[in-house]
Write a structure and sequence with these properties.
The structure holds 2 protein chains of 2 kinds. Chain A has 6 helices and 3 strands; from the N terminus they run αααβααββα. Helix content of chain A is 67%, strand content 12%. Chain B has one domain (15-160): Alpha-D-Glucose-1,6-Bisphosphate, Chain A, domain 4 (2-Layer Sandwich), CATH 3.30.530.20. In chain B, strands 1-7-6-5-4-3-2 form a 7-stranded antiparallel sheet, with helices on one face. The chains are: A mainly alpha, B alpha+beta.
Chain lengths: 117, 161
């Protein structure tokens, strides 16, 4: 991506967030953390069929863009969602949704004017 | 892994949009506004080349000011008269220099149901598949600032009113 294009972003912070989200495994990990709260790497690895090392790498990728935070709990590393950054990621969908709201209003006006005339 | 699919749906909720609204017009009228390419273009803000039919790809040029240099392609999937209409497209394909054709599409679905004894229609619009859209593309959407579609939509609403 050229610097000029990157400079045109309204929210330059958003690009790495989306990059970090673009993986089924990472979305799954965010899902677990969202549903169950802070979890250890051991718990997050259970049932995934993936090694703890691999899960750790994914969590660290999410941590680098601020989607999750980690803390030590005894000998374990516990990860939790950082909801503020996730909010940025949701803005993309909000924009698309706003467009559909506008399109829906136009469709409504279009058919209702016609029906009443 | 089935569990992952469930999980992915849970938290970030970044894959789909659903809009449901009611209009005071019979279902047959609403159906025509959606399934007739000319009528669709009139309210959506797009000039479409050709009629909608399942399996066809219809090209369109936006007629929304400032975006009238952009062309879109609608891959029509299913046409179930007065009930269901669906197509695929590339969401936020806002850079005319980029070839989006090799990238994943989102699915747009319209569902119609009669209400008020046939005097009104409930419309449900779902767009899904955003999680498969390349990340850089999603971030690029932020190039569209607030002076974009929202204000243009207002102008369009005034025009059709």
């Amino acid at each position: 991506m050229s610097p000029s294009r990157a400079a045109a972003f309204k929210l330059p912070d958003a690009a790495p967030v989306f990059a970090a989200l673009g993986d089924t495994m990472r979305l799954g990990l965010l899902g677990r953390l969202s549903a169950d709260g802070p979890l250890s790497i051991r718990r997050l690895s259970e049932g995934t069929g993936v090694t703890r090392q691999a899960v750790t790498r994914h969590l660290e990728a999410l941590g680098r863009v601020g989607l999750v935070r980690d803390a030590r709990r005894g000998r374990e590393r516990v990860f939790a969602l950082d909801a503020k950054r996730l909010e940025i990621a949701k803005q993309y969908l909000d924009r698309v949704a706003a467009q559909w709201d506008a399109a829906a209003a136009r469709l409504k006006a279009f058919v209702e004017d016609d029906a009443n005339s | 892994m089935t569990i992952q699919t469930q999980q992915a749906q849970h938290a970030p909720g970044t894959d789909r949009i659903e809009k449901r609204f009611e209009v005071r017009a019979p279902r047959a009228r609403v159906w025509r506004a959606i399934a007739d390419a000319n009528e669709f273009g009139a309210w959506f803000g797009m000039k479409l080349e050709g009629a909608f039919a399942a399996g066809r790809t219809i090209r369109g040029r936006l007629t929304i000011p400032n975006y009238d240099h952009l062309t879109l392609e609608l891959q029509i999937e299913r046409v179930d008269p007065e009930h269901f209409f669906s197509y695929r497209w590339h969401p936020y394909a806002i850079d005319p220099k980029v070839d989006y054709s090799s990238e994943p599409t989102t699915l747009v679905e319209f569902r119609l149901a009669e209400i008020d004894g046939g005097k009104g229609t409930a419309v449900t619009i779902v767009e899904s598949g955003f999680d498969r859209i390349p990340l850089a593309r999603r971030a690029e959407a932020f190039r569209m600032n607030d002076a974009g579609w929202a204000s243009q939509a207002k102008k369009l609403a005034q025009y059709v009113a």
